[in-house]
Amino acid sequence: MKQRIGVYICHCGGNISDYVDVEQLGKLMAKENGVLISKNVMFACSDSTQKEIEQDIEENKLDSIVVASCSPKLHTHTFRNVAIRAGLNPYNYTQVNIREQCSWAHSDKPMDATIKAYGLIRAGINRVSYSEVLESLEISAQKVVAIIGAGVAGMRAAVDLARMDNQVYLIEKGNTVGGHVAQAGRLFPTNENGKEVVDRLYQRIRQQSNITLFTNATLEKVSGSIGNFWIEVKLGSEELKLNVGSVLVTTGFDFYDPKEGEFGYRLSDRVITLPDFNKMVENSKGKLIHNGKSVKSVAYIYCVGNRQSKGENRYCSRQCCTAAIHSSLHVHEKFEDMTAYHLFRDIRTYGKQELLYQQSSKNGDIYIRFEEKEPPVVELKNGNPTIKVKDYLTTKRELTLDTDLVVLVTGMVPRTDSNSVSSKLKIPIGIDRFFNEIHPKLKPVETVIKGVYIGGACQGPKNINESVQSALSGAAKINATLKSGNINLEPIIARVNADSCLWCGKCAEVCEYDAISSIANGGKLIAEVNKATCKGCGICAPTCPSNAIELAQFTDNEIESMIDGLMSKAEISPRVESQQNNQKAGVQSLAGYPKIWRTIANALEGNTLTIPQIAEKIDQEASLVTWHLMTMNRYGFVESAGLNDNEDYFMYKLKK
Amino acid sequence: MSTETFSPKILVFSTDKISDPGIDQAGLRKLHYSPSVYVISLPCSSGIKPRWIMRAFKQGFDGVFIAADGHECSYSPKCAEHTNTIIVESQKMMKENNINPKRIRMAALCSVCAEPFVSHMGNFSKILSELGSLETEVYKAQ
Questions:
Q1: Cβ(A296)–Cβ(A270) under 8 Å?
Q2: Does residue B139 carry a pLDDT above 70?
Q3: A-B C-beta contacts closer than 8 Å
Q4: Which of A67, A320, A476, B36 is most exposed, with minimal Cβ within 10 Å?
């Protein structure tokens, strides 16, 4: 049992402490058996708090720590590394989720959320007090990568992985490479042709002897785990079994296929989608001709199949505004006397793409804003389209536009075969039906399946630039994992109690990985676990009639003590607003908050200062001071004291 | 006990790769469920020991919910079968201790099953509210 436990309860800005009385919990936990230090901290994951925890471990010889903050999915490794840096075994740390599974889930009932958090932290303390020192297992890993999908994202990642001395298998379902980009025509911002970009990448792939490209190849089955996956691929009648260390999925997207009759689609050959229009523009010379008829005016209808408030595609595809405007500019350059109407909901030409929007406006393109509740109506007379649209930028006056062509600016949707890929690789699918990363900011290309990464538009709408960036990010992650040829695996595996094991073989029967066998021990047979092949699922544990096999970190002591902790009776008092406390206690109440807060407060003691003045006084960057001062302001520690004499900065003072 | 004031305590055994992200997502999206629901995370739902379930009842939980991996399990294709065996075993032990077998429930939850999780918690709470607290049930049986 651990007797020198450190407990750190996180405010997470206000994400937790707005609902859970973190300060009170900090005080209550300090009274628990075995707890030597109990603190509430503003951001447990911040550098300053990490250093503070390290210092506490070293100075107080803590034998274990509990961090009560966000989901273990986010910061388990952050705090394991804190423990390692301070000389504590990383498995003597327990993460308690009081954000996703408490403060956010019960933001409607703050008192109940505090009571629940009390139980959760008690459970964490109980668990960590039974925690043991565990050492990582090192396994050899194949420096071989399978990339599923040979669009530009997959091709570009293949080149980099190959250059970093990895064997790459590039697996493409279609019979050609390059995906949508190969047919995209002229691309922003370099005005290169998509086919040229793909050709160039293809040549680079051919030059790399350690890339093997399979086309017309389908993913059949995946087994194994990080470092040692087995990928079964079907090539016509032939089947291949590839042994790879990691997998990068870059299967891309499909364009939304409008329904028959949606803005007149398929009812007239004069209503086409943007990808088809781009091909037409690319193939026309001198005059823009569609089905033998000259085209002089084009109406682009935006957000088709996306941003559906009642449909299944609620998201924005972010690249289509740029694609439509870029296409319109191309049409103006290539053909004379063209008229373009852009029927849009909002123009989202973010970043450099905004320049295209400006150029398009200078060219005299007409922009008409509509709203989803009153979309344009395409009427067809003898197949010729007339559009009626209410112009929300003026007086909602209904305009009637006669155009030669209606172009539907269609967004991106998940590929129809994404469910099949997902089920084989066990990649979770998000609410938008694209593949889900672990965390959009902290783990943007990792999936919950170790060794399986996602890149490009298979994880959500992206332009080509962003797709390639994310695929390269996945490639870098994979290379970092496989580089040494060894991977450290968590030591959370099954183990046998030799005294109570009577070898009935039931544990071996349920093990899918043949990790359990019998061995002679002290005149009897007992079970033995192969440390390299055990996956740490724990399926063997409940099958044992003599309770002789258990999973590290999930022992009876740990789980049962957690259950006891969850049901601990809490003596929680109704919350006293911290701001009132702050007002009474002043700078003293900053104990437990980041050190820089106390430094800022000391600088402001009896003073009224601007941010640059504070920064100079405490010798810190103004941006850092701004960030912390704004949070202090939100929590009522400081307040504005009006503008300075030059009226160029706000002054701040301590709140009395 | 009135079903209006009784808030049954539920212990959820969840799995870190499959159902945990779904339960986390419920919180992220602030889809509220009963604060009397507590989650213990494990690698696989087939690794739950019946003695842990019995410990939960002994400590005062009114129900145990197993967020099973089912066919999503990355460890074993027979996961649903194994988990079911654990439930059958637990129900035998529950009967021996005068605990209604309805107090244990299993459903497959995936990594994006935020709404289904909230819905399962609502339905299970309703069933447990109708059964009343475990303490009362065991007392009556004695």
A1: no
A2: no
A3: 142
A4: A476
